[in-house]
Amino acid sequence: MAMKIRLARGGSKKRPFYRIVAADSRMPRDGRFIEKLGTYNPLLPKDSEERVKMDVERIQYWLGQGAKPTDRVSRFLEAAGIVEKKERKNLKKGEPGEKAKQRAEEKAAKAEAPAEEATAE
């Protein structure tokens, strides 16, 4: 059975609240889970201790059993020092699109043109 440590959404509309759960990867996001491992409340400030609560012992147990954390949960675990920080590459998202590159080139060319005229006089 492929295990995941992931978030299960609760809360009402526009008021999210998540449980950190150990679940079979074939189950739906808010469906059946094996064990509740903690909570995450994104509405609280980032420096609040109540924002992310985890049962560290049980999480380490499930990681030892071969459960794979999702990306968001792995970030929580990295912040808590449970797992080592892994390098993430976001090569395409940080790069501007073709039109933005063209606009930047045109803007640079326009900026150079008045500067050249001022030095020529």
- CATH class annotation of the domain at 3-80: Alpha Beta
CATH topology (level 3) name of the domain at 3-80:
S16 Ribosomal Protein, Chain: A
Content of β-strand = 25-35%
**H/E order of the elements?**
EEEEHEHH
Assembly classification: single chain
- Kindly, what is the distance between the CA atoms of the first and last residues, rounded to a whole number of angstroms? 77 Å
Radius of gyration using CA atoms only? 23 Å
Helix content: 25-40%
Main beta sheet: strand number and arrangement? Answer: 5 strands, mixed
Shape: elongated
Report on the structure:
With 121 residues, the chain is α+β, with helices and mostly antiparallel strands. The protein has a domain at 3-80: S16 Ribosomal Protein, Chain: A (2-Layer Sandwich), CATH 3.30.1320. 35% of the residues lie in helices and 26% in strands. The chain has 3 helices and 5 strands, in the order ββββαβαα. The protein has helices at residues 56-64, 71-80, 98-120; strands at residues 3-12, 15-24, 35-40, 52-54, 68-69. It has a 5-stranded mixed sheet with strand order 4-3-2-1-5. The longest helix is centred in the last third of the chain and has 23 residues, at 98-120. It is elongated and about 70 Å long. The chain starts with a strand and ends with a helix. The relative contact order is 0.14.
